[in-house]
Amino acid sequence: WRFEFQYAIAAIIALIHDVLVTMGAFSLAEKEFTLVIVAAFLTIIGYSLNDTIVVFDRIRENMRRKGKASLKEIINASINQTLSRTILTSGTTLLVVVALFFRGGEIIHDFSFALMIGVLVGTYSSIFIASVFLVYWESRSTKKRV
Predict the structure, then answer these.
(1) Nearest to 93 by CA among 65, 51, 35
(2) Which of 11, 30, 63, 64 has its CA 20 to 30 A from that of 37?
(3) 75-82 long-range CB contacts below 8 Å, 24 or more apart?
(4) 3-state helix, strand, coil in the chain (%, to 5)
(5) What rounded mean pLDDT belongs to the chain?
(6) For 89, what's the count of Cα atoms within 13 Å in the CB-facing half-sphere?
(7) Could you tell me if 71 and 134 are in contact, meaning their C-beta atoms sit under 8 angstroms apart?
(8) Residue ranges covered by each domain of the chain
(9) DSSP sequence for 61-130
(10) Contact, 43 vs 115, CB < 8 A?
(11) d(Cα 11, Cα 13) in Å, to the nearest integer?
(12) How many Å apart are CA 79 and CA 59, to the nearest integer?
């Protein structure tokens, strides 16, 4: 297996967070949920999952290299190593989505609004939610062993 069970749970929690926050933004903006919005949610899930997997893969690589370091140190180093990639990817995606929002016309407006929220929240969750859950999971499993 490439990743352990807790990685999958952390990624799923981050995905649920992303979709719920985007749904909340849509509700606050009183926008209608259509099939186009469902497609936007699926796009957000794919985008966020890809971003989370990049961070998790770096964590996995660093765990092999830095065997004696704590999980917190490994996660911190991994996030720092992937941070520039994450910000550049999110920034360029956001530039295109913002251009679609302002220049794309009425048909694509709600889709691009959902993607704007989703890209921002997905970037946040891949850095701050999924990794923190791994630390939480590890601390709980360590307490149970003692």
Answers:
(1) 51
(2) 11
(3) 75/131, 75/134, 75/135, 78/131, 79/55, 79/127, 79/131, 82/54, 82/55, 82/58
(4) 90, 0, 10
(5) 90
(6) 17
(7) yes
(8) 5-145
(9) HHHHH-TTS-HHHHHHHHHHHHHHHHHHHHHHHHHHHHHHHHHS-HHHHHHHHHHHHHHHHHHHIIIIIH
(10) yes
(11) 5
(12) 8
Instruction: State the Cα–Cα distance between residues 77 and 59, nearest whole angstrom.
Output: 8
Please count the other Cβ atoms lying within 10 Å of the Cβ belonging to residue 76: 16
- Global pTM? 0.86
CATH number among 2.60.40.10, 2.120.10.10, 3.40.50.300, 1.20.1640.10, domain 5-145: 1.20.1640.10
pLDDT tens per residue, range 17-70: 999 999 999 999 999 999 999 999 999 999 999 999 999 999 989 988 877 888
Dihedrals φ, ψ of 104, to 5°? -80, -15
